[in-house]
Design goal:
Elements: H1 2-12, H2 15-25, E1 29-40, E2 44-55, H3 58-77, E3 84-97, H4 109-114, H5 116-128, E4 139-153, H6 159-168, E5 172-180, H7 185-209, E6 213-222, E7 226-227, E8 234-235, E9 257-270
Antiparallel strand pairs: 1-9, 2-4, 2-5, 3-4, 5-8, 6-9, 7-9
């Protein structure tokens, strides 16, 4: 009943008076934008590489890929036994020689060189069974199998050494893709706390300058943004020697991971 009477009184007032009463009942606030940023030493390094196997048949190429993959993972795991291995796409393509008129198969010199022995074997096999080896433009001389691989290392200090070792073991385009954190929650919370403290300091300054008293926090809008540093270390494929020496140690000093928070904070003005 009291609420209904109040509404009736408000409706009976002239428009300017009603508007003034509504403005007077709306609480005054201070809205500020603040950000916080913290730096944390990375505890994770992500490596990417491609493992390739060649052979004169699809089975031979796949077998070569599997053998190289086993040697690659075993060698890298010696640096970090807790590393996580994740595979991506796998493909088998034809390797050709001769004039291929722009065919989009493997026709590069590196693959042709890698498969030269396979081509010789193919010719010898054909002669053994009384057939001629394939001839002509863009002839298939073998197959190439590839698999994309991601290595996540907890031993950040060994990431550079791992890239060099991967190259020695035959990896293509081995590189450290990013440095990061296994658990970003703690860093994010610290950045948010820093942003809230900055917002309160800004609002307090505004309140004092305007002769008001800062009241409680009313709302927070989170526009969090994060940046992850990247260090690129690349090593092209290199054949592994018969007796491998210890891996070459590469010292690295990655930048700290910067975690930032950007907030829009509203404070009430106390009466």
């Amino acid at each position: 009943m009291l609420v209904r009477k109040a509404l009736m009184v408000l409706a009976a007032l002239p428009a300017p008076a009603a508007t003034q009463m509504q403005m007077e009942t709306k609480p005054a606030t201070i809205v500020v934008t603040a950000s916080g940023s913290v730096e944390t030493a990375p505890d994770m390094a992500t490596l990417t590489l491609t493992i390739r196997g060649e052979g004169k048949t699809p089975d031979a190429a796949t077998a070569a890929l599997a053998a190289k993959q086993k040697a690659m993972i075993g060698g890298l795991r010696a640096l970090d036994r807790k590393m996580d291995v994740r595979t991506g796409s796998i493909s088998i393509s034809e390797a050709r020689s001769g004039n291929c008129d722009g065919r989009r198969d493997y026709t590069g010199e590196d693959v042709a060189d890698a498969l030269s022995r396979a081509a010789d074997d193919l010719s010898a096999m054909a002669e053994d069974i009384g057939h001629k080896a394939p001839t002509g433009p863009c002839v298939v001389i073998g197959r190439v199998a590839e698999i994309e691989t991601t290595i996540i290392m907890s031993s950040v200090k060994d990431a550079g050494t791992a890239v060099g070792l991967a190259g020695r073991l035959g990896a293509r385009e081995a590189k450290v893709e990013t440095f990061g954190l296994h658990d970003e929650a703690d860093a994010s919370n610290r950045a948010i706390a820093q942003a809230i403290a900055s917002a309160r300091a800004q609002a307090q300054t505004i309140a004092v300058a305007s002769g008001a008293k800062l009241g409680p926090l009313v709302s927070v809008i989170d526009g969090n943004e994060r940046g992850v540093p990247t260090l690129m270390i690349s090593v092209m494929q290199a054949p592994a020697p018969p007796d491998m020496p210890p891996p070459i140690v590469v010292d690295i000093s990655p930048r700290p991971v910067e975690t930032s928070a950007r907030l829009i904070v509203t404070f009430a003005i106390a009466k």
